[in-house]
Amino acid sequence: MKKIVALFTLLLLTLGISSMTFAETSNEDQAQALKEIFETNKDIQDIINAAVEEGDKLYKEYVDNLALANDEESERLTATYNAELETLITTLQQVAEEMTLAEIAEASKDGIEAECEYILVKIGDREVLVDPIKIIDIA
Fold first, then answer.
1. pLDDT 10s digits, 45-64
2. How far apart are CA 139 and CA 131, in angstroms?
3. Which keywords, in A-to-Z order, does the entry hold (predicted)?
């Protein structure tokens, strides 16, 4: 999973460098909009990384405690783990979507067409989709 995250980050940087070169030959507003898109994607990636780290911690604690628990405690631990993980995932997805949609709306004002591009992220024992920004076209 970390390789996927690293690969995605490298792809964003590569696209960012080539897109920024084009933006420099275009206008300053587009260059600034592209810079803001890449900053937003970096911020989203930081949030994803933090959620992955927290999810891994929750899962490890859950598995460790589950090994020592009886049936009744197992049910309680499972319910607690599922609720905490679901809150973490939902918060990540909502924050990422809000950031993405806001940045896409701003970029469109400067002639940049962008969209959500969902990536698969493993958090705890679950795989979820999160939506950084993908640049489609620069007018």
1. 999 999 999 999 999 999 99
2. 23
3. Signal
* Structure-block tokens of residue 35: 């810079």
What is the Cα Rg of the chain in Å? 19
Residue with the two structure tokens 């499972």: 78
Contact predicate 108/128, CB 8 Å: no
Taking every pair of Cα atoms in the chain, the longest distance, rounded to a whole number of angstroms, is 66
Number of structural domains the chain divides into:
1
Q: Is 132 left (phi over 0), alpha (psi -120 to 50) or beta?
A: beta
Tokens of 74: 């197992």
For residue 23, give its domain range. Answer: 2-138
Residue 90 burial (C-beta neighbours within 10 Å; 0-12, 13-18, 19+): exposed
Residue 20: partners with Cβ closer than 8 Å, 6 or more residues away:
31, 34, 35, 38
Q: How many other CB atoms are there within 10 angstroms of residue 92's CB atom?
A: 22
